Amino acid sequence: MKQERNALSFLHRLVKSSVFWLALVVGILAVGRVYYWFSVGPTTLNQDEAALLMNARFLVEAGVDEWGRSWPVTFASFGDVKLPGYIYAVAGLGAVFGFGEWVVRFPSVLAGCLLLLAVYWATREWTQSRMAALVSTLLLVISPWTWHYGTIGFEANMALLLFVSGLVCFLQQKPTYQWDILGTLFFLLAAMTYNTPWILLPVVGLALVVARWGEWVSLVRSGILILSVFVGVGALTLPAASQKGAITIFQDPTLLSLYPAFRQSFSGIWQTVLGNQYVYFFVLAAERWLASWSWDFLVLSGGSNPWHSIPGVGHLHPFIPGMAVVGIIWKLGWTLKKRLQKPEIQRLPLAGMVLLFLSPLPAIVTVDAPHATRSLFFFVMLTVWAGYGLAMLYDGMCQRYTKQAWWLYFRLVVAAFVVWGFAWWWLPAQVRWERMLSPKWNAGLTAALQSETVSEAESVFVWDPNGNRYPYAVLASDMSVEEFLRTVQRSSADTVGLVRVEKVGKFTFVFQESDIAEKSGIYLEPNGNTKWDTIETESQ
């Protein structure tokens, strides 16, 4: 009998333990992600994943990238400059397990699972609420964006984990220099993996001013550390920063051409005061900031880029935006009520509000904003505040002011809404991917390149108007880095600095139909979204 009581007592403590529930949620998510990876989502690599995998293999084989540069700090493929963090992570995995296609996605899958722990840690630290932390983690699990970015090889997803981990190290209830040093390391790795964390470092500095106001030694120490990361990474990755600058509102030719009309809309002194470029770019940024908060972007459509979301759905569970508003209002009201009692307790939530409202900064300076990949931290902050809002709503409205029977009804309604919000995108996801898979994913190309006809051909021509399909040919043929560097032929840079690969090995990449008219060999051209035709051609 005593043993039975001990066992029941242990089970009771286990069920009440947040560690148990967190481990259970992470485990379920890990299993679900593997299932989604192989059975629901796109099984083909997109062009960025193919380029990441190719360069990682070249690093392990010869210590060079596709341009022959030894252990570079930045990488370039088809005009797109990438930071080194994710590629070196893939290279390390590939050196141990080989360079199967799964290797390029595994760091993102692992980061997506570990992100739950980081968000739980952040919410628990900032809100001092165990329930808010668990609810935020649950809402993160069932949001479409975490499945999309957590099963595809996105550098942004790994950088997000590192950035949130660094942020929690700095925004502790009781900051110490040990936490600051650990946070600096996380920030450094995040900024060397994707450019969004680097852009957000000034926002972190502002949040730290709010969180540590009056603690001047601590504030100066953390400021110096963050500034050193910002300046150091900026200097190391200047080529990547310069290339990404071309897609911002400050350098876009179309937006710049509209500025004179904006200036002429004012007259007299107002043309000087309101018709200048500072106001113009502020208006453009404000429009994109508001678009980032739109219901259509967050919940319904997810934007126009086919790589950034599951077809037909947005990024967040429908519960999150409304509950985030509840959490913000609740915290503001509580802060005003308790403003004279222990003001230091209020600093972290206020810093969290700074982070929430300024987190869209990397997206709003982008031409095609709202931009999902640059908004991942924004999604995290919305989820944190949604978890807090739901936890406080349950605690304040049900446990204190309603009869016990209503607790059950409240939980049942919330549970039903959570399940519906998950099923709303999960059930049709596979059908949507099959029906709406964009040709930009190059689905079916690898299978066509590995066909017996192509393998035996002496010359292969691949339809490639965008100049991004050569990594597929290199990977499918298992071409060595020595052969690649010996045979690659590139075009000269175009007006925006993009360089195409015209030929490598036996593969020639066709940019216009007339180029194939007088060639003999095998010609591959897309037929629909997932099929490729293999055509034998002869010179005429």
Structure description:
The protein has about 550 residues and is of the alpha/beta class. The chain has two domains: about 20-250 and about 315-360 and about 370-430, no CATH class; about 440-535, no CATH class. The chain is about 65% helix and about 5% strand. The protein contains 26 helices and eight strands. It has helices spanning about 1-15, 20-40, 45-60, 85-95, 100-125, 130-140, 145-150, 155-170, 175-190, 195-210, 215-235, 240-245, 255, 260-265, 270-275, 275-290, 295-300, 320-335, 345-360, 360-365, 375-400, 405-435, 445-450, 450-455, 470-475, 480-485, and strands at about 75, 80, 460-465, 490, 500-505, 505-510, 520-525, 530-535. The protein has a six-stranded mixed beta sheet. A two-stranded antiparallel ribbon has the order 1-2. The longest helix is centred in the last third of the chain and has 33 residues, at about 405-435. Residues about 1-5 have low confidence and may be disordered.
Overall SS class: alpha/beta
Strand order across the largest sheet: 4-5-6-3-7-8
User: Total strand count, please?
Assistant: 8
Main sheet: strands, sense, barrel: 6 strands, mixed
Shape: globular
Give start-end ranges of low-pLDDT stretches: 2-6
Distance between the first and last residues' Cα? 93 Å
What is the count of DSSP helices, taking H or I runs of 4+ residues?
26
- Helix fraction by DSSP (H/I, runs of at least 4): 55-70%
Mean pLDDT, to the nearest integer, reads 84
Strand content: 5-15%
Total of domains: 2
For the CA atoms, what is the radius of gyration? 26 Å
* Oligomeric state: single chain
